[in-house]
Amino acid sequence: xxxxxxxxxxxxxxxxxxxxxxxxxxxxxxxxxxxxxxxxxxxxxxxxxxxxxxxxxxxxxxxxxxxxxxxxxxxxxxxxxxxxxxxxxxxxxxxxxxxxxxxxxxxxxxxxxxxxxxxxxxxxxxxxxxxxxxxxxxxxxxxxxxxxxxxxxxxxxxxxxxxxxxxxxxxxxxxxxxxxxxxxxxxxxxxxxxxxxxxxxxxxxxxxxxxxxxxxxxxxxxxxxxxxxxxxxxxxxxxxxxxxxxxxxxxxxxxxxxxxxxxxxxxxxxxxxxxxxxxxxxxxxxxxxxxxxxxxxxxxxxxxxxxxxxxxxxxxxxxxxxxxxxxxxxxxxxxxxxxxxxxxxxxxxxxxxxxxxxxxxxxxxxxxxxxxxxxxxxxxxx
Length: 382
Description:
By secondary structure, this protein is an alpha/beta fold. The chain has two domains: 4-184, 2-Layer Sandwich (CbiD-like), CATH 3.30.2110.10; 190-377, no CATH class. The protein is built from 13 helices and 20 strands. It has helices spanning 4-9, 21-38, 128-139, 157-161, 166-169, 190-205, 220-228, 244-254, 265-272, 286-296, 301-308, 313-322, 327-344; strands at residues 11-12, 15-16, 18-19, 44-48, 54-58, 60-65, 68-74, 88-96, 100-105, 108-109, 111-112, 147-153, 171-172, 174-175, 183-184, 213-217, 237-239, 258-264, 350-355, 361-365. It has a five-stranded mixed β-sheet, with helices on one face. It has a five-stranded mixed β-sheet with strand order 17-16-18-19-20, sandwiched between helices. The chain has a two-stranded antiparallel sheet with strand order 1-2. β4 and β5 (54-58) form a beta hairpin.
């Protein structure tokens, strides 16, 4: 039996879902704000995740100190534990003169030192999604006209961060507060692969104006783009995590008529290099692929070397645009299309969309002009 929290989050492929550091921070922040204004201890709080699902999380180490209130939520990654599993994420609430919610970091929360991340250099490593969650949840319990400062901290953060990607990404001093959906999906087991198969079969069978079309996305960025820009029915969109190769062959087995892949440029740069499981354990050729494509599109030797020196694919996006080399993104899409078509033996028409972190379509293959605004017009080819 799972805890009440995980009963509300549900299971996927028989595996328990978890919740992100962003959900922990939002819940702790709401609890601290409730305690600050009520001056009473709170044992648990309910929050709404970005997808609209509600969950209830228990609070720990609740306390008052002068004009502040403080509490914590323990991170639980479900059946796919990561480097932050089990640690406490604290929030402290303090009244301020100005109305609204002000968010800052404390001990154990990292600082951004490089460009190319969703947060600007010098800022605390609290991503935009969790920031919005904190603002919404705290705002829902604040008296009108009041203001509060929320400080997020993680006593084990600096130590735990050494076992994450943060040092390589230029995030110093602690962990990041992350999570676009608020939920940790178990992604690395046979059960998860089985669930992908089920979702793909369901998508193929769905009665739509484009029979047999399936849209594969690694995660939230692709899903949001397809939903908001192209109005793709949710029944046709399948989250595949890192399992690109498995999902493609599953589409063939299920009888898909067309397959579209929409995801971040960093993901498809790996596939363009022939990596069909994009987990970092299996390799990482993002910057090498982008550098090669940039060279093919006319980049100078110095520009190629600069791309290779970067820590993140998203940082390369900024440079390629600055150098008027945005054609690189469509070349990445074309190479991804070629690799996927070879894997499937050209049996299924494919379409590839390369996205930024914000969900902007940077490039596509076959080319999908900016005038296309609906999913029924997106092109595919073998």
